[in-house]
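ingest -> validate -> predict -> emit
validate: passed (alphabet ok, no gaps, 565 aa)
predict: started
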Amino acid sequence: MARRVALLQSCPIVGDIGGNAEMILQMTKIAKKQGASLAVSTELIISGYPPRDLLLQDDFVVACNDKSLSLDCEIPVLIGSPVPPLDERSLPGNGVIRAGESPREVTRKQLLPTYDVFDEARYFEADERPGIARTIGGLNLGVTICEDAWQHCGATPNDYDSDPISQIVEWGRQGVSLDATVNLSASPYHSDKVNIRLQVARSAAKSLGHPFLLANQVGGNDDLLFDGRSIVAWPNGQAILAPGWSEGVLIVDLDEINSCTWIGEGELQILDVNQESEVPDDDLLDAIVIGLADYCKKSGISSIVLGLSGGIDSALAACVAASAVGAENVTGISMPSRHSSQHSIDDARSTAHNLGINFEIIPIEELHKTAETSLDEILSVGHPVAAENLQARLRGMIVMAFANANGAMAIATGNKSELGQGYCTLYGDMAGGYAPLGDLYKMEVYALAKAFNNRFGKDVVNNSTLTKPPSAELAPDQKDEDSLPPYPILDDILRLHIEEGLDATGITNRGYDLVTVNEVLTRLASNEHKRWQMPPAPRVSKRAFGQGWRQPLAARHDWRNFLSE
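emit:
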């Protein structure tokens, strides 16, 4: 009899215990039809991941645990679920429950990450050892949960006291015979993550001497994205990856290397020994589309409105919105002022027409005059930027009024470079419920606009939008480079600091001028208050503004001046 295990690559909704349970049942039926004797879910599938402070509510943990234990599955399923505390002084556990025949708790997560976007020690009590699941199909499995497998190959920045993979290896030395080790995972996406995850799986399989199966979540939840790409790794280094950005069931035949079946959209990647995954060129494009699409779907949002300025950022944001919720459900609003060029209006209209989204032109000149008259005394003695920002705030008011009146969600169109320099207006262009470009540097915005043109097979974003100098058009002949370094330089300085962790000295050692570096880093620090108020943005880089970026607000940064002495 074939020994087949099904990995359920799923997209749960946080808090939807009943819906997530039904999803497990339906995927398990598929697994049974394909001859699987056991199914393995993703981490915390029953609660949805990440459930955040819902885990602080005892009733929520109990409801998840009870639902998992009561699922009437056609074959045994290992379900990721919060499990109740062991005693009244403990926190809940991040656990695995065997559902189906002989339901019971199997194990709890040992290694609780507290870096980057993770804060699991806030919610969970760590366990001391991984578990073994003995199934009806005669399979004996080592069971780990996400981070439990990362310590073994040194892929985690945390230094834990234990190594669950090594513990399972030791069980084997003591005579415990295992057919495979499985890992229930919710491993967030970033652009370098796929091959790191593959390294984790291969390292575990090599040490264990048997197949290592990792079931990973897919889809977007708030600002986190999950790319799927569940993994099967064999001890000799061969591996199979499920498709990215697609729900499905991966059937693994433990008796035959590289014998897997995928039930879902996309194709499996079969990798030879030491071969890395080939990540598609448009992977980043898929990531930001799915981030917005799932945010809308899981929040009950069906339509989107945005300011369409004729610039590259709003053009790309419109492409993402149209792909996420359908062009017919997107409205772009052009709001020209006295400083707006005709080509900006024309470019906005061109993008809307090429995408097939709804398009409105609402000039702000009369509103602008009225506001200037009413605020004349204030604006005449204040900083010139106050008068400029008035236009952005009028546009934000119009976009939000349209959103409220039509039951739509406004999206902000700013990118990571602008947000990193405070080149954005509170209650103006930052207004919205989501910022799809918030973790994309400016030059990535240009690259993805071109990628969208390739995907659509036509110039949805026209050449004028792609080639004209970036400008907020809040003053006569204004250009971004009047006050910022050229974007290729700015992007690299920000990336080296935010993602690589280099300080001013380290960045200048890469060839950048110290004065420019200090100006960029000072603007970054002094505009932190804006980023605390930005909408959620899908995380696609190694370090994004949001959960993984924790900077002080009430702080002084003049210490940077000492670096130039």
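The chain has 17 helices and 20 strands.
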